[in-house]
């Protein structure tokens, strides 16, 4: 075990030395890898924010349950009990007084509300289903509509289907772009490792003559590719974070103008770790392919 750790430690130090020895080439390679990973990462983050914005928008991916006018607190408590048992996701009770206050606060509605002899709005529930698939939301709305003291269940099923279709197209497009740039990253690492092997051809031949195995020869190049890909992933995460920070104030101001509560979310720690790990894996794959082909040719 100690010998294995010593060999891998030596290979890692050798990979770091090669990265530092050609600083300009390393910086250019990291820039290319970073850009290649930034575009699909930013696209995926954009889709995630679009889905979150849709959830925060009124009536989008939300089921509104309106009670009858004669519904009392006992009826409301029964609906709450049924919702807890069904566990549809997050839900919130909106009393008629709160709904009237919101309506009164809307532009141009204060005088209209003041002229009403009584509160015409019913108690309601706003439900955000855990399963936002259009079919699941429609089935849940149909079930709730049969509950006692429920006057109306509102769900824009057509809009939900359109939005779900747009998200699927967006994910497919980002996936295809990610696949193309992942192949480009593997190709960049492949070419970089190939040039290194050509430059160190004499050293590799001498090492093989004195009994070095292919695994021993491959190890430093594998670490080099993984480190290069991982650093490129870290650079991509930094670029996405900077872009999110620059866009967040403008998007927040735009959302405020439309009366929405939405803030642009940047990359989470889990997203960053996944991006760095993905870059390292692709770099390692490119190095493995390059070394395997080069050693086979020799």
TrEMBL record:
The chain crosses the membrane at residues 20-47, 169-191, 229-251, 271-295. Residues 176-282 form the ABC3 transporter permease C-terminal domain. It is a multi-pass membrane protein. Its main location: membrane. Keywords: Cell cycle, Cell division, Cell inner membrane, Cell membrane, Membrane, Transmembrane, Transmembrane helix. InterPro entries: ABC3_permease_C, FtsX, FtsX_ECD, FtsX_proteobact-type. Residues 62-153 form the FtsX extracellular domain. It is found in: Cell inner membrane. Signal peptide: none annotated. One of its GO terms (biological process) is cell division. It holds the Pfam family FtsX_ECD. The keyword Transmembrane applies. GO terms for cellular component: cell division site; plasma membrane. The keyword Transmembrane helix applies. Forms a membrane-associated complex with FtsE. PANTHER family: CELL DIVISION PROTEIN FTSX. Belongs to the ABC-4 integral membrane protein family. FtsX subfamily. Part of the ABC transporter FtsEX involved in cellular division. This is Cell division protein FtsX. The lineage of its organism: Bacteria, Pseudomonadati, Pseudomonadota, Betaproteobacteria, Rhodocyclales.
């Amino acid at each position: 075990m100690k010998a294995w750790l010593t060999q891998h430690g030596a290979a890692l130090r050798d990979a770091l030395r090669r990265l530092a020895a050609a600083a300009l080439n390393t910086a250019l390679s990291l820039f290319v890898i970073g850009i290649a990973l930034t575009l699909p990462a930013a696209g995926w983050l954009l889709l995630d924010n679009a889905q979150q914005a849709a959830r925060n928008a009124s009536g989008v991916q939300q089921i509104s349950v309106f009670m009858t006018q004669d519904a009392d607190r006992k009826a409301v408590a029964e609906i709450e009990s049924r919702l807890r048992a069904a566990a549809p996701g997050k839900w919130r009770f909106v009393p008629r007084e709160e709904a009237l206050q919101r309506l009164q606060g809307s532009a141009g509605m204060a005088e209209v509300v003041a002229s009403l002899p009584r509160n015409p709005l019913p108690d309601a529930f706003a439900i955000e289903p855990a399963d936002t698939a259009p079919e699941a939301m429609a089935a849940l709305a149909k079930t709730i509509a049969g509950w006692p003291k429920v006057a109306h269940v509102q769900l824009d099923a057509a809009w939900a289907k359109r939005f779900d279709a747009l998200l699927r197209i967006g994910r497919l497009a980002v996936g295809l772009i990610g696949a193309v740039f992942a192949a480009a990253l593997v190709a960049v690492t492949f070419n970089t490792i190939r040039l290194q092997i050509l430059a160190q051809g004499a050293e590799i031949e001498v090492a093989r003559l004195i009994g070095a195995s292919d695994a021993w020869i491959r190890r430093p190049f594998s670490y080099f590719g993984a480190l290069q890909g991982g650093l490129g992933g870290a650079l991509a995460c930094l670029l996405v974070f900077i872009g999110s920070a620059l866009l967040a104030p403008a998007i927040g101001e735009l959302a405020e103008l439309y009366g929405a509560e939405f803030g642009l979310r940047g990359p989470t720690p889990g997203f960053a770790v996944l991006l760095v790990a993905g870059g390292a894996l692709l770099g390692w794959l490119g190095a493995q392919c390059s070394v395997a082909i080069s050693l086979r040719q020799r």
